[in-house]
Write a structure and sequence with these properties.
The complex is a heterodimer of chains A (307) and B (272).
Chain A: H1 7-11, H2 17-58, H3 63-68, H4 81-112, H5 117-130, H6 134-146, H7 161-185, H8 189-197, H9 202-230, H10 234-239, H11 259-268, H12 272-303
Helix pairs in contact in A: 2-12, 4-7, 4-9, 4-11, 5-7, 6-7, 7-9, 8-9, 9-12, 11-12
Chain B: H1 3-18, E1 25-36, E2 39-50, E3 54-58, H2 65-72, E4 82-90, E5 93-94, H3 102-106, E6 109-112, H4 123-133, H5 140-150, H6 154-157, H7 170-182, E7 188-192, H8 200-213, E8 218-222, H9 226-232, E9 235-240, E10 244-250, H10 251-256, H11 261-267
Classes of the chains: A mainly alpha (307), B alpha/beta (272).
Chain lengths: 307, 272
């Protein structure tokens, strides 16, 4: 081809301008869409942070007092301590109740269940459970636990911390199951074949090869599920959690308040002073959430295996 | 102690009875046919695999040679659509009999796969795996060393036994898998194209190793590489498309003077 050939002569009949324009427009829309979420999050964080800063530096609320005192009628004496302890207890029992049942379900579905109607029924059920509004779990536990009569004392069970944990455990069970299933599916079948060919039973294969390989993924999923649970308010209100946590619960059978219910109560009060306490509470809750998510990301990156 | 342990002992007693009739034959198939759903993968295979020899299975893709191999230690069991007819006799006992536990069977017939599949565990744990699950944990370190030496890997890894098996090169990983398979001391080792995912140097190491292993074990190797079969095997079985065993004889005979015209055509590269 000689250097003098006219470009127009060669490609003149091809007009890409309009196609290129459509491409750029679509790309712009996608960038704007992905930016929207980030923008909303930044707006939220900025609003909460500015309120928290005002609370500490303008209103002179002591952070130490906020973290060591519990709920009070007087805003200058009120703190978050009992709520934080209540949430910690809640998470402990929530994870105890949901982890083993959830992982057990996932292991059964992925490693043992034959691909039949029963398995599909269980999986369809799980997908539906994941979509049930959290308040419904609160109602369920209210009827099935809180309103029962304790056969030993003859009294009503009442709004105990354990009931709250049951509601939260039911709520996050589908999330734990699905994420554990994904972690198990990520273990290549060649690992299972290698184990079976060495003369391992199914149980030995699951116990010694599949579960250890899937464990980081399972833990990551569990932590993310707990992060979801720790911010849940509606099921706790249904169960009858104390909105004002005046003292930390002393065990699973004590009455309790938690961080989200405390924040909800403060934000609902007419006095402006309480609104600043709510803002500080949200900051504490967000910090705990970020720490949990960071742990999950760390676990995932550290133990990720390239087969 | 588990039930499977017991099963092994039962098997051993039966072997003693059959020892005289199955002299020097480790594995024998009789009228072995396999279907995947409606598709027939193997057609009436009769084959006697000699003890302490290397037997190669060759043939074009889809000829059923891998299916045949997986029938020997019942690794096909978990494929729902797979149906097996006929007999696979291991030391005279049909492994598809109802009283044979496939787990007990696989403890005496080990297997190495096409793609190296070490566990995401340390080199030591990989080799010790079979020993641990089979409760053969006396002198564990010694057994691990013996297996690694037999797999010609000991000198390369003896200083890094606690590092991950996944950090090794492909050829080393495959020798690690061979060490894992031979550590619990099975009698037969099945290999499904053990060198096809490896570079030429690693391939030749694996080939040397296979010849070595035949001194202690009965080795059955599936390969799509005819030169490899010619180099390492004592006996060769030629499968052709449709799951038919066309010829099974001494390797020398197969490659120099096959009876069947189709085998000659396949070996000289006229098809396949």
């Amino acid at each position: 081809m000689s250097a003098g050939t006219d470009t127009n002569e060669l490609f003149g009949d091809v007009d890409l301008g309009w196609e290129r324009l459509k491409g750029r427009a679509f790309l712009g829309f996608c960038i704007a869409a992905s930016g929207f979420g980030v923008f909303a999050l930044l707006l939220l964080l900025g609003d909460v942070a500015s309120q928290a800063v005002t609370a500490v530096f303008v209103r002179d609320i002591s952070v130490v007092r906020f973290l060591t005192e519990s709920a009070s009628r007087f805003p200058d004496e009120a703190g978050f301590y009992a709520a934080v302890v209540g949430s910690a207890w809640l998470m402990l029992f929530t994870v105890l109740l949901s982890f083993f049942v959830g992982v057990g379900t996932a292991v059964y579905l992925e490693e043992f269940a034959p691909d039949n109607r029963w398995k599909r029924l269980v999986e369809a059920n799980l997908a539906n459970l994941a979509g049930v509004p959290s308040v419904v779990y609160g109602l369920l536990v209210l009827a099935a636990v809180v309103n029962l009569t304790n056969p030993l004392s003859g009294e009503r069970v009442g709004p105990i911390l354990f009931a709250g944990a049951v509601a939260l455990a039911l709520l996050i069970m589908p999330i734990i199951i699905v994420s554990a299933q994904e972690a198990l599916r990520a273990v290549p079948d060649s690992m299972r074949r290698g184990s079976r060919a060495t003369g391992a039973t199914n149980w030995q294969t699951v116990r010694n090869v599949v579960l250890p390989a899937a464990l980081p993924g399972i833990l990551t999923g569990t932590i993310l599920a707990l992060a979801r649970a720790i911010g849940e308010t509606a099921p706790l209100i249904m169960v009858g959690a104390l909105l004002t946590a005046r003292r930390a619960p002393e065990g699973p059978f004590d009455t309790f308040g938690a961080m989200p219910t405390m924040i909800y109560y403060w934000a609902d009060r007419p006095e402006v002073d309480f609104h600043y306490l709510a803002a500080l509470g949200i900051v504490v809750l967000l910090l705990i959430l970020i720490a949990m998510n960071a742990t999950a990301v760390y676990l995932r990156n550290k133990y990720e295996t390239e087969y | 102690m588990s039930e499977t342990e017991l099963e092994i002992d039962v098997d051993r007693e039966e072997d003693a009875d059959e020892e005289t009739t199955s002299d020097e034959i480790a594995v024998e198939t009789r009228d072995l046919s396999v279907w995947y759903g409606e598709d027939r993968a193997l057609q009436d295979i009769d084959m006697k695999v000699p003890e302490n020899k290397v037997t190669a299975m060759i043939g074009p893709s889809g000829c059923g040679k891998s299916t045949f191999l997986r029938c020997i230690n019942r690794m096909n069991d978990r494929i729902d659509t797979c149906r097996v007819e006929g007999e696979v006799r291991f030391r005279g006992k049909n492994v598809y009999d109802d009283d044979v536990d496939p787990v007990a069977l696989r403890r005496r017939i080990g297997m190495v796969f096409q793609k190296p599949n070490p566990f995401p565990k340390s080199i030591r744990e990989n080799v010790a795996y079979g020993l641990k699950i089979q409760n053969k944990t006396d002198n564990l370190d010694e057994s691990v060393e013996t297996a690694l030496r037999r797999a010609a890997l000991w000198d390369e890894v003896k200083d890094q036994l606690d590092s991950s098996g996944l950090d090794l090169s492909g050829g080393q990983q495959q020798r690690l898998c061979i060490a894992r398979a031979i550590a619990p001391d099975p009698e037969v080792i099945l290999m499904d194209e053990p060198a096809s995912a490896l570079d030429p140097v690693a391939t030749s190491q694996i080939e040397d190793l296979i010849e070595e292993l035949a001194r202690d074990y009965t080795v059955m190797v599936v390969t799509h590489n005819m030169q490899q079969a010619a180099r390492i095997s004592d006996k060769t079985a030629v499968f052709l498309t449709g799951g038919e065993l066309v010829e099974f004889d001494d390797t020398k005979k197969i490659f120099e003077n096959p009876d069947d015209q189709r085998v000659e055509d396949y070996i000289t590269g006229k098809f396949g």
